[in-house]
């Protein structure tokens, strides 16, 4: 059904342009653009955010439903499509075209359209959540993971809760509210997979070796109450950001359990050998999404040059993590790149060097139950191998409608 919604910006300068309107019932609503004043009919809730915005309202017709309007600034620079960096794109085309074949063609299209990127809403169990869950559900968001509870209490069973929308709707990020914890963290839902793979249990000793800005540390604290979580980040600016994240999401009563350190993760394994039950190595990597939008050709070229050094640093971090974990404990290695040199090759190298390390197949536990939401790819040279084709790790490749990733995740157990 086509509806005309009379719209007049009630908005302050700079003027906003209404560019599209979609209803989660699936029907399209046409929007009458106007430069003058006016009203959104039956407005129930109006929110304005900078740049991409959500405009919530209700239309009273034969049916009542909520809808979203995306607004963006008329400013010319915002109307232009964000340019990708040609040097980086060319490099990715050559490497990923060979490694991923057809899957790269569709991943490329998805990555080159930031407006199609999806964002998950990870709830913070330490805040009051009733209004947020209702709001998310009324807007067509649904829970990605099975939920065990939704109350906010350290005594209740913790659970990682993330809401996702089938369309590329972006829930507004939450501003800092003095004295109040944030209710949610916007996250690429594929970033939760390393945390799920880590299987943190209450009273575990956990190390987040490369922790800033802290998204996965927050996710770890949603999934369990560890005895101890050390969040390590050597870069001082990023460590400050990490500290702020932890302050915004975790209550004071957890401060004895959650600490921040600033060591070089490559050396930490020696100083704290065998201390941890679980170690997450969310390694510095090529970060395909952001590299594609490098701010200048020079920055793109420099990143590609530095890229060659990454597999060595990643292997050093993984080796350090395997020293830090106790016999029988697990290390999860993750990156947000599609590059086989930073993913499978790093894991293969470590397994060669470290006879006590044993990879664990995550297909049954993680990939199969979530395959409706994520597209997984096996290693390039193993495309047709079976049945252990995911033994070294899972690679999430962004695809239209499943815009999560890139994310690589591998779990390695240190044998007893
Ligand atoms: C992919 S980011 C981590 C993202 C973070 N885990 C999250 O979920 O928000 C990688 C981080 O590793 C840090 N890093 C770089 N070199 C490192 C090293 N030698 N030891 C530990 N961390 C390092 C970077 O500064 C960066 O903050």
TrEMBL record:
UniProt: S-adenosyl-L-methionine binding residues: 210-216, 233, 264, 282
Domain of life: Eukaryota
GO molecular function terms noted in the UniProt entry: RNA binding; RNA methyltransferase activity
An individual GO BP term: rRNA methylation
Residues in SAM-dependent MTase RsmB/NOP-type domain copies: 107-415
PROSITE patterns linked to this entry: SAM_MT_RSMB_NOP
Keyword S-adenosyl-L-methionine: yes
Active site: 336 (nucleophile)
Keyword field contains RNA-binding: yes
GO cellular component: mitochondrial large ribosomal subunit
Protein family: Belongs to the class I-like SAM-binding methyltransferase superfamily. RsmB/NOP family.
Protein name, as recorded: NOP2/Sun RNA methyltransferase 3
Source taxonomy: Eukaryota, Metazoa, Chordata, Craniata, Vertebrata
């Amino acid at each position: 059904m086509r509806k005309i919604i009379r719209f007049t910006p009630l908005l302050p300068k700079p003027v906003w342009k209404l560019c599209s309107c979609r209803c989660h019932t699936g029907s399209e609503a046409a929007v009458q653009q106007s430069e003058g004043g006016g009203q959104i009919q039956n407005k129930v809730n109006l929110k304005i955010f900078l740049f991409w915005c959500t405009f919530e309202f209700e239309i009273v017709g034969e049916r009542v439903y909520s809808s979203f309007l995306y607004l963006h600034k008329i400013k010319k620079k915002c109307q232009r499509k964000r340019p990708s960096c040609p040097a980086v794109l060319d490099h990715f085309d050559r490497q990923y075209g060979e490694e991923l074949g057809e899957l790269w063609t569709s991943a490329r299209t998805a990555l080159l359209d930031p407006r199609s990127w999806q964002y998950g809403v990870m709830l913070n169990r330490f805040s009051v959540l009733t209004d947020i869950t209702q709001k998310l559900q009324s807007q067509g968001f649904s829970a990605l993971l099975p939920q065990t509870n939704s109350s906010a209490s350290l005594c209740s069973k913790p659970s990682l809760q993330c809401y996702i929308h089938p369309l590329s709707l972006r829930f507004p990020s939450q501003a800092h509210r003095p004295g109040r914890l944030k209710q949610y963290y916007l996250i690429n839902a594929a970033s939760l997979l390393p945390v799920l793979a880590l299987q943190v249990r209450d009273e575990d000793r956990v190390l987040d070796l490369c922790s800033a800005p802290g998204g996965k540390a927050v996710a770890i604290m949603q999934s369990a109450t560890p005895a101890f979580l050390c969040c390590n980040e050597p870069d001082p600016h990023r460590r400050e950001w990490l500290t702020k994240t932890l302050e915004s999401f975790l209550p004071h009563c957890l401060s004895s359990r959650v600490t921040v350190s600033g060591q070089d993760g490559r050396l930490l394994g020696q100083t704290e050998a065998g201390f941890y039950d679980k170690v997450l190595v969310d390694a510095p990597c090529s970060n395909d999404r952001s590299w594609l939008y490098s701010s200048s050709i020079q920055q793109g070229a420099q990143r590609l040059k530095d890229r060659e050094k990454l597999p060595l640093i990643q292997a050093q971090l993984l080796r350090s993590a395997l020293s830090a974990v106790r016999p029988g404990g697990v290390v999860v290695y993750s990156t947000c790149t599609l590059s086989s040199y930073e993913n499978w090759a790093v894991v293969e190298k470590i397994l060669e060097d470290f006879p006590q390390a044993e990879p664990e197949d995550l297909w049954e536990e993680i990939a199969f139950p979530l395959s409706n939401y994520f597209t997984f790819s096996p290693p390039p040279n193993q495309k047709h191998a079976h049945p252990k084709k995911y033994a070294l790790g899972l690679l999430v490749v962004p695809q239209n409608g499943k815009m999560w990733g890139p994310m690589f995740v591998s779990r390695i157990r240190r044998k007893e």
